[in-house]
Amino acid sequence: MARQIRIALRNCGVIDPERIEDYIARDGYMALAKVLTELSPEAVIEIIKKSGLRGRGGGGFPAGMKWEITRKVQADQKYVVCNADEGDPGAFMDRSILEGDPHAVLEAMTINGYCTGASKGLIYIRAEYPLAVERLKTAMSQSRETGLLGNDILGTGFNFDIDIRYGAGAFVCGEETALIHSMEGLRGEPTVKPPFPSVEGYLKKPTNVNNVETFANVPVIINKGWEWFSSIGTERSKGTKVFALAGKINNVGLVEVPMGTTLREVIYEIGGGIQGGKEFKAAQTGGPSGGCLTKKHLDTPIDYDNLIAAGSMMGSGGLIVMDEDDCMVAIAKFYLGFTVEESCGKCSPCRIGNKRLFELLEKITQGNGTMEDIDKLRNLSTVIKDTSLCGLGQSSPNPVLSTIENFMEEYHEHVKDKKCRSKVCKSLMQYLVVPEKCIGCTLCARNCPVNAISGERKQAHLIDQEKCIKCGACMEKCKFNAIIIN
Amino acid sequence: MAKIKLSEKKIQELKDVCKTFHNDKGELINILHKAQSLFGYLPAELQEVIAKELNVSVAHVYGVVTFYSFFTMQPKGKHPVSICLGTACYVRGSEKVLEEFKRQLNIQVGQTTADGKFSLSCLRCVGACGLAPVVLVGEKVYGRVAPDGVSDIIAEYNI
Amino acid sequence: MNRIKLIIDGKTTEVPENTTLLKAAKTVGIDIPTLCYFELKDMNIENRPGGCRVCVVEVKGRRNLAPACNTMVAEGMEVYTHNIRVLNARRTVLELILSDHPAECLTCAKSGSCELQSMAQQLGVREIPYQGEQSKYRKDTSPAIIRDVDKCIMCRRCEMMCNDVQTVGALSAVNRGFMAVVAPAFEMNLEKSPCTYCGQCVSVCPTGALTEVDHSRNVINALADPTKTVVVQTAPAVRAALGEEFGLAPGTLVTGKMVAALRRLGFDYVFDTDFAADLTIMEEGTELLDRLTRYLKGDKDVKLPILTSCCPGWVNFFEHHFPEMRDIPSTAKSPQQMFGPIAKEYFAKKLGIDRRNMIVVSIMPCLAKKYECQRDEFKVNGDPDVNFSLSTRELAHLIKASNIDFNSLSADDFDNPLGESTGAAVIFGATGGVIEAACRTAYELYTGKKLLKVDFTELRGLENVRKATLDFDGLPINIGIAHGLGNARKLLEDIRDGKSQFHAIEIMACPGGCIGGGGQPFHHGDSEIIKQRASAIYREDAGKPIRKSHENPFILELYKDFLGKPCGEKSYNLLHTHYFDKSAGVFVEE
Predict the structure, then answer these.
(1) How many domains does one find in chain C?
(2) Quick check: C466 and C481 in contact, CB under 8 A?
(3) Closest B-chain CA to C188
(4) Which residues, in sequence order, are CB contacts of C304 under 8 Å at separation 6+?
(5) ipTM of model
(6) Residue where a domain terminates, one of C182, C212, C242
(7) What is the DSSP code (8-state) at residue A9?
(8) B66 to chain C: which residues are within 8 Å by CB?
(9) Active site residue C350
(10) Does some domain include residue A121?
(11) Which of C372, C436, C506, C540 is catalytic?
């Protein structure tokens, strides 16, 4: 039985997030005290580096290295930013941590401030998370009152305070340069890196940006030691990862498993298998930037590198499970629809290229695709990945490439046979009356919103394919299973 | 020229909001959030006041307003209906639910019904994937919504 | 500064640190194509959002291709600018841009000088494999500028010019994703925005998304109308740039050919705005001396510094952005608008014709002039003092369309009396020129002495803001000069905050002055062209027999014959104006 290890989620659902006492009772702020009184910034950075903690927001950049770079840049002012702009559809890990254990993030940011030489922290959070904001505000005022935030923290002379900035509904702001521009009151357009935020970030000052889950790991690493942390996980991916399990799975929700756990363990042991006993088809990780994992990946240990090798990515941890009823071409189109809406429009490959990808996929799902279109999808995807300005465009074609790679036969069926095996693509479906089964009750005809069904009472009915809008109402109403999808 | 004349009192309120943020142009997004919660939406006149207070161009403010999907220049309905189109909801059929809302309310996404009662918008994941597909009416969350449940939801507010 | 060694396409080069790959490649003869990138050296104008992605190159060891315009060199870097990966990517990116661009080249105003068009040619694009929806927007025609942003490729050059250089703030990127475009607030008409019509957005737009309103047709019709006497005036900067449209080297002076061409086009009188520039000096110089003398006498009501007012983009700027300071600029009209009433109220009467039967056309390096001549205060009973204003580019098109072989024309002279001018008038075309011309006259009028050295070289150059103190026979006169409205803003803020020490300030809206105007032939980011035009202007000045406005015999005659004295009653009525507060907000139309 796969085990869950709760590090980032250690306090979620266990403590009352509105009581600092609860947090402290579970070793809260012990790490901060240790850091401020016993350790030099360099020593703390060394611990984080040795722990092998990598950024949990998607990219997987080694956290300790980021801290070190920010520390080494000379500047009169530096910033710590917590990226809580959790935008991947189907992902809600950060929200759960902020709502369930806000102090963990505050503590880690303060530790980071001590290490990097920053006196100011900013949490960039989605405006759609009002409860998380409330909990953070409560936590901040409690820790200020307790002397754990603000001036002269724990009497050590160290000053650090935190402020909240709101997102406003732009997925691209999860990208760190875009996030910084958004915090500056600008359009959330990314800029070319380098310079990296660690060197030139918020208000042109060195800025250490880490995501919520990354921060939530930090106090535990300090308390339990890097040796303990790095003993969990795989060779190059240490610790645990929180996944948001969703889709066609029995047990929906957050799970935290050691890096290296297999997809099979997550889906079948922890997730309780596929809904309705249907067959597993694919799992999408990394949201719109990721790709799908298939049956052949079920026993692959999940970590940063294996996911990339499989054409996907860790992303922030959304894990959407799909079954035989999901059409993979339609899924690719769904994600591209998302990207088209969320592209900032700054660079041409992302602005126009993703639109063209979406249109090609639309053409295929409507039954008008050609084999040449599949080649175009491939070339375009490669170029968009290669030339886009930021991570959004550099990963947005992943759902296309990975579905082509893993489900080419579905593309072929849509293009050559004009068929959608999952019966999702409306244009490729025909609702037909099976004359042998139809008793002529007229129920379907009366329920058809466009009067496409004709037939005398007690005689087999007929669906006019010209008029039919494929809403499926007839099939739902028919009590004799006399209507089928061709 | 149709001017949406804000009252002096409202304009003063808005200026006070700017002042609480020290008329700092870096706080533009926070100010727009506050303004939208005060007024329900961000009409042109309001953006002009903010631009003047922060000493930035109106074009800049408008550029920011139109970048973020959270900001709207259209007044929302009394009961804003939001359909989650996040992946979990999508694979569980939220698109059909959306179609049904469009049909029954006879409006497109981003529009408000003629009587001002309902407006329709899409969301990307409210983090309630366990309840997919999810519909929000105002603050109230409806889980596991099917197309044939749409009329009941609308009826709740149509009294 | 550290030197960095790197290899580009197998060639080793060494460049200073913080050099972009784009510039480093140039040192080994590799010209990487660019589209959104734009630079005007010496003027601190640079646009490199890294948005178009046409300049991508492969950097060994990097996962993705890197934009050459925005990637700095690093020691030991290995760069490939035209391997198959790069070529395929560059071509596909261009095909994508073209797939969202109307294929209207045959009728597009920008055809022939469109950078997107040349790029498609350079890369040999013969078909566009990616087809789909194109972004569509409302077309917007203002008095001077047409926005047809279906053709916008989001290079952001106009946005950079309007905000960073000019600080006008009429434009911003708006919307997101596929519908992202550069537009005024609320996507309202430019006419309702704080746009100054400086035209710098037009002069940097790589495509036909921003163009000038073309008045050539109106001029052709007027020339064909036998009941009209058509008079043309040409601004100083035009003669220093027009030749570029006919393949002549930048900086070639074509005054005589231009006059000959205008005569061939059928203008009844070919006059010179320079004449009106001399007149402007008489009026503005007198006003300056008057304010200065009163100031020196301790008059508390007098406002100093005095600001020049001959640039219509600048006038629009302070009317929109600094309306509370609109009593500081000189009330003297611009040369174009001084010329108008002199033509219609003085010269027309001399000819014995009604002013309505006279059509005054101006040839200007400027787009704001198109708006200026349409201002109500410059009309008499609805009849504008200047009927139409054509840009240098429009004149070139008109000449070409009229079968005139420009280069083979022999030089002609302007007509008199409104065609005679001094060297002081010519230099109006370059930044610092107006104030230099004013000082030549003011010095002699103030001191009563002969000015021995007429070249105030300390007032020339291309630095953003220039300051100089001139010696008016013991009286130090502090002069400020700004070109580009962002620089003007700094000077204005100093005045407002009481920090200004200047007696007189010259402001030109366009970088470089009128020679860099929004109506000039496209320089495509080559600041050398602007410098060449400036040197042509000063050459013309140096070659003039008379170089001080108050020595122009026709000007003196005009005062004697018609106007009376500078800033006298008649002058005041005909040659001076007043300014408006245009800062009021404009809300979106229903």
Answers:
(1) 3
(2) yes
(3) B59
(4) C291, C292, C295, C502, C503, C504
(5) 0.94
(6) C212
(7) T
(8) 174-176
(9) no
(10) yes
(11) C372
B76-92 pLDDT, tens digit per residue, is: 888 989 998 877 788 78
pLDDT-derived band at C586, boundaries 50, 70, 90 = low
Is the alpha carbon torsion for B5, B8, B14, B19 positive or negative? positive
- Same domain for C414 and C472, yes or no, is yes
The whole-number pLDDT of residue B2 equals 40
* SS3 call for A157: coil
Considering only CB atoms, which chain B residues are within 8 Å of A189?
A: 67
Domain count, chain A: 4
| Domain assignment present for B73 | no
Cβ atoms of C571 and C332 within 8 Å: the answer is no
Q: Are C522 and C233 in contact (CB under 8 A)?
A: no
Task: Say which residue the tokens 């008199």 belong to.
Answer: C416
Average pLDDT over residues C365-386: 97
Can you tell me the distance from the alpha carbon of B120 to that of B111, in angstroms, rounded to the nearest whole number?
A: 6
Contact C183 B59 (CB under 8 A): yes
Neighbours of chain B (3+ CB pairs under 8 A): A, C
Residues with Cβ < 8 Å from B15, sequence gap 6 or more? B49, B53
In a domain, C365, yes or no: yes
The rounded distance, in Å, linking the Cα atoms of C56 and C135 is 25
**Which residue out of A386, A392, A396 would a mutagenesis test of the C interface target, given it has the greatest number of C Cβ atoms within 10 Å?**
A386
Average pLDDT, chain A: 94
CATH number, residue C388: 3.40.50.1780
User: Which tokens go with C88?
Assistant: 């395929």
Q: Which amino acid is at B50?
A: I
Out of B2, B62, B69, closest to residue C174 by CB: B62
Domain that holds residue A341: 328-417
Q: B52 and B18, same structural domain?
A: yes
Residue (of C268, C489, C273, C244) closest to C372 by Cα position: C273
Mean pLDDT of the C419-441 span: 96
- Residue C329 has φ and ψ, to the nearest 5°, of -65, 155
Q: Which helix (H) or strand (E) is C306 found in, with range?
A: strand C306-307
CA C473 – CA C235 distance, rounded (Å): 33
Residues of B in contact with C175 (CB under 8 A): 66-67
Distance CA A199, CA A110 (A): 19
What's the CA gap between C401 and A41, in Å, rounded?
A: 74
Closest CA to A114 of A74, A161, A61: A161
Of these residues, C159, C287, C420, C506, which one is catalytic? Answer: C287
- Give the distance from residue B3's alpha carbon to the nearest chain C alpha carbon, in angstroms: 6
Q: What is the DSSP letter of C464?
A: S
**pLDDT at A1 > cutoff 80:** no
List the single residue in C with minimal CA-CA distance to B71.
C175
Encode burial over C410-435: b for 16+ CB neighbours within 10 A, e otherwise: eebebbebbbbbbbbbbbbbbbbbbb
* Interface residue A168 vs chain B (CB under 8 A): yes
Position C555: which residue type? Answer: I
Does the N-terminal peptide bond of residue B133 adopt cis geometry, omega within 30 degrees of 0? yes
Same domain, yes or no, for A251 and A181?
Answer: no
Q: Burial, C297: exposed, middle or buried (Cβ in 10 Å; 0-12, 13-18, 19+)?
A: exposed
Yes or no, beta carbons of A387 and C100 under 8 Å apart: no
